[in-house]
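cache lookup: miss for this entity combination. No prior model stored, computing from scratch. Input as submitted by user K.M.:
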Amino acid sequence: MRSQPAWARGAVWVALLLVVLTLAACAPESATTTVAGSPTTAAGGANLGDTLNIATWPNYHDPDTIAKFTAETGVNVNVSVFGSTEEMEALLRAGNSGIDIVVPTHYAVPAWIEDGLIEQLDYAAMGNPDLSNWNPLFIDQPFDPGNVYSIPKNWGTTGIIYSPKVGTPVTSWKDFFARAADDLSGRSVIVDHQISTIGSAAVAMGYDLNTVDPAELADIEAMLIALKPHLWAISSDVQPPLRNGDSWLSMAWTGDGVQVVRDNPDFAYVIPDDGGELWVDNWTVAADAPHRDAAYAFLKFILQPENSAADTAYILFPHANPAVLGLLPPEVANNPVIYPDQADIARMTLSSAEAYNSQARAEMWARVKSSS
Amino acid sequence: MVTKTEGEEAGSTKVAGSSGKVSAERGLHRLFLALMAPGLVWYAVFLAAPMVVLAIFSLGRRAPNGGYQAALTLEQYAALPTRWVPFVNTVRLGLIGTLLCLLVAYPLSYYMATRGGKRKTQLLAMVVIPFWTSFLIRTYAWVFLLGNHGVPEVLRLLGFGDVRLLNNSFAVLVGIVYNYLPLMVLPIYVSLERVDPALRQASKDLGAGPWRTFRQITLPLSAPGIVSGGLLVFVPVLGEYLIPVLLGGGQTYFLGNALADLFFQSRNWPFGAAVAVTFILLIMVLIVAYMRFANKLIAEGREVPLL
Amino acid sequence: MRRTDISRWIDPGLRWASILTYVFLFLPIVVVVVFSFNAGRHVTELTGFSFRWYVTAWTDPFVLRAFRTSLEIAVMSGLISTVLGTGTAIAIPSAPRWVRRVFQVLVNAAIVVPGIVLGLSLLIFVVAATTWLNNWIAYLVPGSDVHLGLGFYSVVAGHAVFGSALVNVLVRTRLASLDPSLMEASSDLYAPPMRTLFRVTLPLLAPAILAGFLLAFTFSFDDFIVAFFTRGQSVTVPIYLFSSIRRGVSPVINALASTLLAITISLLGVVSLVYRRWSSRKTEEAA
């Protein structure tokens, strides 16, 4: 039999070599097998290991601040991004996730505590941070009394963005839902998140943000189904249509408000007069965290005001610690979208775990989305 | 699909000499196992077993705070009718989308197969190249094109007034046709390419007009490709998740969205599993029907492209 | 005559239909590339010309990490898919009838079943299986802290299911068009089956195998939905993108996509050149 040309044989060896190299180089940073971190030494254990895994939101951490932590402690931080708290919860419930720190929105915390997904925070290991003078709206709340399991990272609001094209400013949820079906038909967007949307609709109709009352929910459902044909979109991706001119009025979260107003100063982000949803993202530690020491070292680091301030100045979300506020550059601290008046946010309500877990609300939302 | 080499054994039986034959057969048997086993095991573990576990989960209950709680109940299946509307919407738009995809793909495939000449592979490659950008990016590009500053702006300049092209069924259909075009083009192209041009020529010589030739010769001969393409497009479209979200603006609620919401927003894993199991059963019916059709074609001596 | 009138319109009609279809296919790509040079901060708002997003794309640690993960997953699942798909394609004609039928259903299912179902079922399965496995490991090897779970490898597993079916179909099609006498000749000459495999069959199948690998790789790199469910804490490029939706998507991803497009097109050019030389040589040698 004629032998292969030499280069074909060489190609086979190259291919094999590539395979071996790939498999060797494929030391995935978020590997399936995780070995628990090194054993703790005496209080203030010096051996932190070299890895820390955080499950969090995109663009929610200042890379320089994280790099500073790594430089100080030698711990590499793997940031895993998730689009929603629900996805983080799916990860934790699946078990053996290898995650150390999770940053959920507050309404998920009670269920996580009840199901043992997160552990009680070791305040001593974090350097005993004093939360007593933090913004009381976010501290010691029903979702985690005494902040035993969580400490706020950054907070935000669910408000209204409108472009100059709406004419008269839209300043309340009542106004929002009325005009969305009326003169602003085809020009408004509501987010695809039942907590925020059903909540805001409830406020518009005079009900409580977190209602699970069947009669009230039926009213809200009727209103939303009637509204749906008038909407531009039901979508959490609110920025493209706003920037495009497709939508003039949008339900939105703080982050979107900050970015849109920054690039389009004639737009406005307002806290509605009749209230609305207030939310706060929290640092929590997973119950099966493989690198507990590193996790607490990181929390101790980030809770120091100067580090939180650097982080906050980068991500442009408000922080509950007044010491952090004091360290922020003026253009951030005085930005009314990032830091609305306390009076304005005092009108708002923290969304509840009950609303988060309500099957009635979830099914209602599915019905609204299915309707034509 | 089962191909022409079906009845053929790799030629060990032709080897002369009894000991050579025996060892060759044994070697062949071992080789066969070595080649076949890993694939079978992989499918057993990562395709079949998950479906079984899914079925088990569908008999459970939602844990109080979300997730799965072991149980043996059919209540999830009893709740299926609540997702009837998304199901109907999905099938309706899926069928229309598949049909549109076919209408767009066929002329292109025909052109490539019959008029492509030496450039056939390049033309085919050009169909696939756009798909080497991320799906999300392509879809975002359509959000721009169908949005205020895109095609509607052009239409406004041409005097058509305000036309809404985004966040409706139109946009979803554009998304479907766009993203599934290669899957429709490929099988149709393959089956058209196999049609002997002499057949068309003969038809023409016998006095048939181009439309008649197409209808009676080309179309039936490309039927396997059409059916393959139809299946390759329709079934995955049924499970589409991103297109309704990004291009439908939440105005169209597909079964895929309902499924994802059940797992993430409602965190009702057993009900989601039940919906998924029903979905799989439906798909299996379609696949088996397809295989029957394909086997019939094989029996008639024709080849079936791809699947 | 009427007949000639129609035939005169067919050719230009087909050509224009095809040109329009190609325009349709490439229009969004043009948009992607144009927006990658966007000076503005959002992916749908064009405000000027700038290279900044290319700089960010290749220096942002989070983007780079997602890119690296995507690449690793795609290479690994592509290789696994190629090995599994090729092996089964070669072996299946010699299998007993019932095995062939069962396998056929499995392959068709793997290709056609929507990604969401695949991802979902794998999520549940991996969760259930690893819980069970971890308990056994903890029992059998007390003190070991091995925790299997969702992550990199579950994504690879999911991608390889679909990828191997793709490769299988491609290789089988090519195998069917090969002259069986080539392989018969090899065994007639007393070559052990292994040698026939490596020296005759595989080289003849090479174009299909390569095409299969490329397809499996591309699918894996571009996949969102399967990875979305099975990712654990891994972050791939599509997942990074999709997660950014609620926090604002910048043109950095256009820059990434455009660079990748440029790289893949050049790779394709190289591969097609190599393939053309190789397959013409194979035809010479086999003749």
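stored under new cache key. The first helix of chain A runs from residue 6 to 25.
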